[in-house]
Amino acid sequence: MTVLLRTEGVRKAYGGVHALDTCTVEVEEGSVAGLIGPNGSGKTTLFNVITGYAKADAGHVYLADRKITNLSPDKVFALGIGRTFQLTRIFASLTVLENMLVASPNGRAAARRRAMEQLDFVGIAGHHAELAGTLSYGQRKLLELAYVLVADPAVVLLDEPAGGVNLSLVNHIADRIRELNAAGKTFLIVEHNMEFVMGLCDRVTVLDSGTVVASGPPGIIRTDRRVLDAYLGEDLGPEKPAEDE
Amino acid sequence: MARQIYQAIVDGILVGGVYALMAVGLTLIFGVLDIINIAQGVLVILGAYLSYTLSVRIHLDLFLGLLITVPAMFVIGVVIQWAFIRRLRGRERTSMTLLVTYAVALIIEGILYEIYGPNPKQLNASYVQSSVHVFGFYLSYIYLYGFALALVLVAAIYALLYRTGFGRSVRATMQHETAARLIGIDVNRVAALTFGVGVAVTAAGGMMFGATNSFNPNSGYDLISRLLAIVILGGLGSIGGALVASVFMLTLESLVTIWSPEWAIVVFYAALVVVLVIRPTGFFGRQPVRAQ
Amino acid sequence: MSAVTGSMSRQRAATGLALIVLAVAAIAFPLVFGSPVVTNYAIYALIFVAVVTAWNMFSGFSGYISLGQAVFFGSGAYAVGIAAKAWHINGVAVFALLPLAAAVGAVIAVPFGLIALRVRRHTFIVITIAVFFIFQLMAFNFSFTGGSVGVSAPFLPWSPTTFNDRFYYITLACAVVAIVMAVLVRRSRFGLQLRAIRDDEDRARGLGVRTMRVKLVAFVLSATVAGLVGGVWFLYLTQVQPQSGFDPLFDLSLVLMAFLGGLGTISGPIIGALIIEPGQLYLTIRYTNGYLSEILLGALFLLIVIFVPRGIVPTAGEWLRRLRTRGRPAVAPVQTSPRAETRA
Q1: Surface of C (109-138) touching B: CB under 8 A
Q2: What's the structural domain count of chain B?
Q3: Span A209-239, pLDDT tens digits
């Protein structure tokens, strides 16, 4: 089993705060990998470094054998890595369908068809003519998922895909991920929802203060002392995203 | 020739001090409220006219008059922010506030025309015309006093920002408005008061400007263009940057004036454009490099 | 489903009909209101309609507010004047110089855009102001621009009524060109990317949009139209000076018109121009001291910001929508997997 996405010794500091410190994470091709850890452990920062939204101070990121450290976001995207954001970033004044068309590479009719397919796949095809800004939070999450998929990336990074949404939608999202994984996509998922992660992921990596403290199959991670320490005995329930603009 | 150059440099530094006074207010407002106050130019002129009225009507010394005009301008600033700027929110906020302040500037300019008419005025005092002869250079008293005033006021602003509780609130708001709100800072009050401070400084700048230039209500355009260039060059939000940029730009202009007075002002703007190509955040700017 | 498409095609038919009526009215206008005084208002209104539509095509869609449109407008004006003088062109042949005016606008926009579009939005606005002042100063200082006297246009041997009527149709044509261009841009994928940039530029870039290229193309298109109209304006007014060709109030009026009507919509700025320009012109003619119009312009803008911040067209659209859907349930989602629906 080959490793498709790998970070090696990545360091990233913001002023005096070390968000990532010698962070080494591996994701096998065709797997669904989970990334968990308490708040502030550096999960989103790692995503940002991988996808080019933040520059690593040290260390490298590899896609298969290719070094992709510090490439700009559009280049990373073109190489086949898609990502969603924890606080959904959609184009609010465009319609749902138009949001999809921004990301799509091909010509008119083909692009529309494919976009509608993706919207249908995630389940919001009926809203295609509505302004994205009017969607509910859960629907936005689905939209983000949809347009990440439009370019057919090989690796999909999901930042809290189940955050702040109700149970039936969480299951719906998990089902979609399983389907896509069965078709060959590799996933790296950041999540706080333990049931979601444990039920979906082949392998779970735990971050604390910017380093990896444990990595392994979900069953083992669940009971690992270091992981429990990292969470300081917190209640590991689903988390709502912070209120921000 | 060398003497001319040195004199030009000295002049540039001294005049730069005056411009620093006006630019500091502008950059402070940007740093805290994240808005570009286009009205700053006209407000300087308003300050000049206020000093003029005090000087002509009740024969009050220019510097003493500041004791009245500075608080007055502070109040005016707070009112402007509270009445028009506070209600602006949302995505378009940056552009909207810029246009709102432009609109306020137009109104003030029009009112000044109505009250004072279009003929140029200048502030007068015994020390305005005379100068001291030092090491073979002429240093006008008014500029020296003005430079000293600039230093005092900038120091005062630094003290306000770094030594007082209010200043702490201001800096917190500058860094992260939401976080500041969450720890109980009344962001609206901070915004209004900071705007007031930024405008109050223009009273001093206005007096200095009026004493060293003849002015009419239309002078605001030229002024705000220069101030914007200075503030952007120094880095939006950086007070030290505004100081450095003021002195730099005015010295540059002073030097170019030796060869060609008409083109000096073009060099001013061209310098802005050149620097921004090389370093889009200005000398000391902290903003992200890529376009927003 | 058929009810939805039924109302959509009815809407389309209504729009088509409205456009036809509008076109007929526009063409017949000078025949009905023949007096040069009235057509003068119309011409200025159309000039602004053209320029503000072009301006909106860049600034409204991308969110980068430019206060430098006058740079292209004035340059176009000067280009025609200087060329006519240098190449000894007289009479009707002058109109052949209009493409030059458009080209001048485009050529200036390229380096201007390459520099200005690399920075954040605040800084962008300020750079446009700086470049504007540079151009005004150059117009004052260079000898080939005639200094503060400016340049005048060759004489056209037409009677006042004919003069105005002909210019009415010319400016009408310019306005139509601008509007058609704006509509085409909005409907295209290019326009989509531009609007995405307005909403979230970094995200757009992350999704593969060539943001610099998109912004620059829109900027240049906008400048081309502005240059063209500047040339037309010069021929109409028969003169240009630094302060009229590069007038700071010109740029502010553009923004005001676009904001009043609704930034980013197509019809909004047009409505804004049609409302404000005649008003402004009236004030300039009636009160020859310009100060009152300044105060009013400023006050009007503040009122708009307070009461109609999103502009007439979007606000009116919202009112209409609220009226129509009052009491009725929201549109039922046409869903393949209904359980996936969440209402926050």
Answers
A1: 115, 117-127, 129-131, 133-134, 137-138
A2: 1
A3: 888 888 888 888 877 777 777 775 554 445 4
Q: How far apart are CA B275 and CA C50, in angstroms?
A: 34
> What is the domain extent for residue C171?
31-247
C46's CB contacts (< 8 A; 6+ apart) are C168, C171, C172, C174, C175
C-alpha to C-alpha distance for B35 and B213, rounded to whole angstroms: 28
How much is the pTM? 0.82
Contacts of A124 in chain C (CB under 8 A): 340
Q: Does the pLDDT of residue C340 top 70, yes or no?
A: no
**For testing the chain A interface, which of C5, C190, C194, C199 should be mutated: the one with the most A CBs within 10 Å?**
C199
**Do residue B228 and residue C130 have CB atoms under 8 angstroms apart?**
yes
What range defines the domain where residue A148 resides? 3-231
* A60 inside domain: yes
C331: helix, coil or strand? coil
Where do the H-state alpha helices sit in chain C? 2-32, 36-55, 61-62, 69-86, 98-116, 121-141, 160-187, 189-206, 211-237, 242-245, 248-261, 267-286, 291-307, 312-325
Q: What single letter denotes the amino acid at residue C156? A: L
A138 closest CB neighbour out of C189, C336, C342: C342
Radius of gyration of chain B, Cα coordinates, nearest whole angstrom? 19
Q: What is the ipTM of this complex?
A: 0.77
Single out the residue of B130, B161, B213 nearest to residue B32, CA to CA. B161
The model's pLDDT over C140-181, given as tens digits with 9 standing for 90+, comes to 888 788 888 888 888 787 887 788 888 889 999 999 999 999
Span B70-109, pLDDT tens digits? 999 999 999 988 888 777 766 667 777 877 888 899 889 8
- Looking at every residue in chain B, the average pLDDT score rounds to 82
CATH code of the domain covering residue B141: 1.10.3470
pLDDT at residue B273 above 80?
Answer: no
